[in-house]
Structure formats: structure tokens, C-alpha cells
Amino acid sequence: MKLPKRLTSEPIVDAMFEVRFTSKASIASILPGVLFAALNASRVENTPAANLPEAIRRSDANLRAMAIVKVYWNRFYVLIGDESLAVGCQLPYPGWAEFRAAIEQVFKAAAGLNLIDQVNRCSSKYVDLLPEPGGLDQMNLDIRVGGHKLTTETTSLRTELPRGKFLHIVQAIGPANITMVTGEQRRGPILDIDSIYTLATPLPFKDFLASLGDIANEVHQANKELFFECLKESTIESLGPVYE
Length: 244
Known about the structure:
By secondary structure, the chain is of the alpha+beta class. Helices cover 26% and strands 41% of the residues. It has one domain (7-242). It has 7 helices and 13 strands. Strand 8 (144-145) and strand 9 (148-149) form a beta hairpin.
């Protein structure tokens, strides 16, 4: 399947690249200040998870991965947990080349702390709001309840698709109302794909950093391919595909 280079009607409402790792100590108390200075960030804020005592967070792997600090920087934001670091985009989506450059800049700044030991997982998550009218019928889905095929009904579907070394968590919701960060109300079917790459052998952070660009490209490409596979050809055409 030939993939578009870009879409003139951009459906992306959120995009994030996350890395999880083991560390000598929580990076969440030190890294925000480092990034604020290194990136010339605009502001830093705590998330609700910051109210949990560190001892409790450190006792649970899921809590260690929760973001507790958010740093706002230009067209991006950085989410920092005890053992996780993620870079996301503020809208409008700037395109993969600029997003990848921001990811590399953040992780190079984090390397100076020498706190991250080994990387064990990275992921690429994109949330897309498809245009109305329509619901799940815009996607390559055939879901029936009894003899009734779901098309524009309010529906929420979550599934996990293993493909090679990736696990894709796909959520299809249609249609739904969302509130943008600007306060704008929008409605339409949502396609949420989280493409996870769990390393068979944890990689020392120095080695991971050396190959970060290639790894990020690979995870991003896997996510992009599945996104277009999930859409009907008519839906792709409605988004104004540009092939180069």
C-alpha cells in the first residue's frame, strides 16, 4: 500500500513518543529544571499523579511510568515520570521530521543527568479525529451486534494487535465529542493507535540514544502504516492525501 506523504486536512489531535526505562533515581525531581533551561521552555506544571508519595510510585511499575510533570516548550510538551519520558506535539501537528528532531533534542538533554540506566520500551501514539458525517463506517471495520451492522452508532472498541516486534493498541470510537486545548468543540469518529516496541533485551541508554533516530522512525512508520490500513479508501481521499 502506497502511503501519503501528508494529508491536507490534518486529522491528528494528539501525538506522543514515549520511552520507559530503569533509573538510578527518579528523574522527575531533577529533569524538569534541566529541560526548562536547556529548551528555553515556557512553563512547568505538575500532573495529578504528582500528589502520590514517591515511595508509593516507586513500588509499582505502572505508577513509575505515570507522568508527574509536564514541561511546555514551543510547539511541543514533555511528560516526565519517575521512569518514563515522553515528547508530545501541540497543535497543529508540525510533521514527523520536526517532531523527531524535538524528540532527539529532549533525550540528548536528558542524557547529561546520567540517571537513566537501560531502556526497555518505546512507543508512538497518535490520536486522529476523522471528519463528519459518519462513524465507524469510515474505518475498515465490520462489527455486528446480532444481525445489525454498526455504522454511525456511538461505539467504543479496543483491541490489541501483535505484529512482529510491535504491539498495537487500537481504539476506535465513533462518533464522539472532544474539547481541544483551545476550548474548541469538535465531533467525529476517533482512531487512537498506540504502537509499542518492547525491547527483547534492555538497551543501555547511551546505546539507545545513538540509535534513537532510527528507532523512532521505525516505530512511527509502523504506526502510520496501520493507521492507513484502518481507513477506507474513501476516507483517505476525503483527507486530501499528497503523494510525493
